[in-house]
Amino acid sequence: MDRDESFQKARALAEAGSLDEAFEAIEKYTSEDGVEYSLTEMQVINIIVCEKLTSCSFEEKKDACFACLPLLEGVKLVKSADWLELYIDAVYDVFSKLSRYARDEERTEAWNRVKEIYYELTLAAKKVWKEKNLPGGLEVYVSYAKLVKSYLDVADEDSFKICETYAKEAKFAGKGTLDDDDYRDAKKSMDTINKMITDARHEKELINDSE
Asked: What positions does the domain DUF7758 occupy (predicted)?
């Protein structure tokens, strides 16, 4: 069975609810260091992650998140808007759910993994969405800011500032060449980033004051 057939099989298995078999079907490829997924393969990864995280019980949720991470870490990012949007969705889905179940040192470890992934993501995003006010690029920072808030107890100050700075630069760029709908989406994303970071700072201060 070649690579295309393996991913097609994995998709069918995932959609049928056979998640363990879906993982096994593509393990040969997903275990490669620096693996590069095609857009079609990234769609399959997205489906597997979504099905894995939604089909498991409350008690299994943390293990499900950790099971999905090898599909997403160490991946060569493709400089394509469609591809990056799928990847961001999967990454955010895993880490946002993991934040609800990870405890103590697991949270620090998870946050360090978030930072590594988003470092690469922000670099890739700059190549794809060259203007700071583009909605697609802003969505990278929306998801980052949401994760900062989810992990505010362990999130580093640099990550707070990275999100804040991008929102400020996007606001400074103004409407530019965006049409009305895209500009509306862009402003909504800027507002979301600022709200997430402001709320996270406030909640972190409350935590620090109570210690």
From this structure: 52-147
